[in-house]
Structure to design on (531 residues):
C-alpha cells in the first residue's frame, strides 16, 4: 500500500496535480527518508513533459506515391505522419495494452455485436465536432466494394455498422471476434470528417501545414487537442531520409532530433557519441523475403521448400542484425505474441534437403532476388548471404540491387518481381497479422498465397479461430495456422529484428517506450518532448 501511494503521489507531481511541497509532505508521512524523497521529486520533475520547440525526425522511408489517405499508408513515414495528425477508435498504449482513444469505452456481450461509445467534444482540425456520422464514413471508406484500402481485408468480417445517436456506433460482425477492438486501432483506420478522407484533416495533436510526398511533412501543434499530457512540441518536421548514412550524419550534426532504423554496422560509432541516445526494443517486427505464388517458379511447392532450407538464419542474425534480433521460422508470429507456436521445430540450413527439393522442382537456371536497403538496413547484404548459402545446395540466386526510391510501389507486392526483400512491423494479435498479410482477401498478401490446399485450410482456420472463445482451442487453431504458412506459404521469415533507433539526448521520453512499432509505437511525436 505504501509503494502504491508513493507511486500515485509521484504521478501527481509529474502531471502538476500537486506541487513539490505537497509531494514532499505526503511521501515523508509514509516514513520515506528525506534524501529518498528528494531523489524521487527530482526524478519526477525531470520526467515531467515540457512544451515547446521544433521537433525534426529523419525517417528511413518515404515515397513520391505517398498520400494523406490513411488507407494507402504502407511505410513508416506515412505511419508516423498519420498518427501525428490522426486518431483511431482505440490505440495500443506504450505498455502494449489496448485502450480507448476516440472511443471512450467499448463492450460486447457475445463478441459479435460491438458497441463503441465515442468521446464527446472532440474537434477535427477544421473545427467540426466529431460524431458517429464521421466514424461511419471513415469505416465505409475502407469497406466499399471499390475500396483499395489496405484495411479492406481487416474489415471483411463487418456485416453491418450503424449509428445509435451522435455518440455511439454499433458493429455487427459475421461471427464473434474477441480481437475486434484491436482491429479498429489499425493505423489505416483513422477517423476523418465525413466527406473528406484524403486531405489530412484529423483529430490528432498536430495539424498538417504542408505535405510533399517522399520529402517532408510539416505540422504544427493543435491548440484544441483533446488528449491530456500529449503533443508537447510546437512544430514538427518529418523528413524522408532513406539513406542510412545521411540519416545518421544528420542526427550527429544536429540537423534532426531523432531517427529510426540505425545502421547496425555503424552503431558503435553512435554509442561513442555523448549527445546521442540509442533506443532498442524487441517486439513483433520481422524481415521477410516473400515469394509470389502467382508467378513462376514460386508457384512450385518444392522450389519454395528448397529456398527455405537453403538459408543460414543464425548467420543472418549475427552478420546483418549484429545480434539485435532472433531467428524466424517462416511465419510472422513472434515469441512476443500470445499464441506463438513454441512446439514447431526450428527450420535450419540443410543443403541436402534443399538440393532434394530443388531437384524435385525441376527448375534450372538463376533465380532473381530483388533487394534494396529501402526494405531494411542490410537487405542487400542479407540477400547476398542467402545467395551464398543456397549455392552450397546447388541453387543459383541472382541478387538484383533495386533503387531505394519507388521500392514499395515498383518492387514489393508486384508480380514483375517475384521474390524480394521486405519488412513487417508485426501486429499485436495473431488474427490481425494474418488478416493484414496472409488471408486471401487482403490487398497486402505479398506472397499471393491463394488457391493452394494449404491456403484454403489456413483461411478456414483463421475464421474459426477468430470466432473461438475457448482459449485452448483457439491456441490449437493458431498453432496450425503457423504450421501451414511455414510449410506451404511463400513467406521466408528468417529474422525477427529489434527496433533500433536513435535520438538526441535533448529528447525526453516516458520510461516505458512502446514496442508494437518503431519510434515508440510510431507515436513518438505526440509522446515525446524536449527535456
Amino acid at each position: 500500500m505504501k509503494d502504491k501511494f508513493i507511486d500515485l503521489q509521484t504521478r501527481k507531481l509529474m502531471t502538476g496535480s500537486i506541487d513539490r511541497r505537497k509531494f514532499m509532505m505526503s511521501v515523508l508521512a509514509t516514513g520515506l527518508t528525506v534524501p529518498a524523497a528528494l531523489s524521487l521529486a527530482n526524478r519526477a520533475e525531470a520526467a515531467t513533459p515540457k512544451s515547446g520547440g521544433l521537433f525534426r525526425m529523419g525517417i528511413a522511408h518515404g515515397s513520391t506515391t505517398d498520400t494523406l489517405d490513411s488507407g494507402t499508408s504502407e511505410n513508416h513515414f506515412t505511419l508516423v505522419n498519420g498518427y501525428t495528425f490522426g486518431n483511431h477508435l482505440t490505440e495500443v498504449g506504450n505498455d502494449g495494452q489496448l485502450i480507448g482513444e476516440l472511443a471512450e469505452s467499448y463492450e460486447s456481450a457475445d463478441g459479435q455485436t460491438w458497441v463503441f461509445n465515442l468521446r464527446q467534444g472532440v474537434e477535427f482540425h477544421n473545427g467540426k465536432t466529431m460524431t458517429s456520422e464521421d466514424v461511419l464514413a471513415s469505416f465505409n471508406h475502407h469497406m466499399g466494394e471499390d475500396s483499395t484500402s489496405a484495411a479492406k481485408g481487416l474489415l471483411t468480417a463487418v456485416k453491418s455498422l450503424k449509428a445509435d445517436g451522435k455518440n455511439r456506433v454499433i458493429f455487427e460482425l459475421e461471427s464473434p471476434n474477441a480481437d475486434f477492438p484491436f482491429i479498429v486501432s489499425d493505423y489505416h483506420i483513422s477517423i476523418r470528417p465525413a466527406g473528406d478522407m484524403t486531405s489530412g484533416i484529423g483529430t490528432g495533436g498536430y495539424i498538417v501545414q504542408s505535405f510533399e510526398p517522399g520529402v517532408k511533412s510539416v505540422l504544427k501543434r493543435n491548440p484544441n487537442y483533446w488528449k491530456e499530457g500529449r503533443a508537447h512540441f510546437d512544430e514538427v518536421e518529418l523528413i524522408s531520409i532513406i539513406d542510412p548514412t545521411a540519416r545518421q550524419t544528420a542526427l550527429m550534426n544536429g540537423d534532426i532530433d531523432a531517427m529510426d532504423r540505425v545502421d547496425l554496422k555503424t552503431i558503435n560509432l553512435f554509442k561513442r557519441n555523448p549527445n546521442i541516445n540509442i533506443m532498442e526494443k524487441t517486439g513483433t517486427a520481422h524481415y521477410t523475403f516473400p515469394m509470389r505464388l502467382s508467378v513462376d517458379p514460386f508457384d512450385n511447392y518444392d522450389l519454395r521448400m528448397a529456398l527455405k532450407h537453403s538459408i543460414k538464419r543464425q548467420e543472418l542474425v549475427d552478420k546483418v542484425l549484429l545480434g539485435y534480433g532472433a531467428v524466424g521460422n517462416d511465419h510472422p508470429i513472434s515469441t512476443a505474441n500470445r499464441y506463438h507456436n513454441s512446439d514447431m521445430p526450428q527450420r535450419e540450413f540443410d543443403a541436402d534437403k534443399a538440393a532434394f527439393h530443388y531437384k524435385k522442382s525441376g527448375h534450372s537456371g538463376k533465380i532473381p532476388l530483388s533487394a534494396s536497403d529501402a526494405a531494411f538496413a542490410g537487405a542487400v547484404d542479407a540477400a547476398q548471404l542467402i545467395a551464398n548459402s543456397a549455392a552450397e545446395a546447388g541453387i543459383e540466386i541472382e541478387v538484383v540491387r533495386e533503387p531505394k526510391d519507388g521500392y514499395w510501389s515498383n518492387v514489393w507486392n508486384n508480380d514483375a518481381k517475384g521474390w524480394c526483400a521486405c519488412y513487417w512491423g508485426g501486429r499485436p494479435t495473431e488474427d490481425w497479422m494474418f488478416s493484414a498479410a496472409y488471408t486471401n482477401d487482403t490487398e497486402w498478401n505479398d506472397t499471393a498465397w491463394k488457391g493452394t490446399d494449404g491456403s484454403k485450410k489456413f483461411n478456414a482456420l483463421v475464421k474459426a479461430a477468430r470466432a473461438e472463445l475457448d482459449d485452448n482451442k483457439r491456441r490449437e487453431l493458431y498453432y496450425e495456422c503457423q504450421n501451414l504458412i511455414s510449410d506451404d506459404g511463400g513467406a521466408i521469415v528468417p529474422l525477427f529484428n529489434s527496433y533500433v533507433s536513435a535520438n538526441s539526448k535533448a529528447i525526453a521520453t516516458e520510461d516505458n517506450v512502446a514496442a508494437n512499432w518503431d519510434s515508440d509505437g510510431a507515436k513518438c511525436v505526440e509522446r515525446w518532448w524536449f527535456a
Observations:
- The chain has four domains: 2-46, 87-196, 204-281+499-530, 286-497.
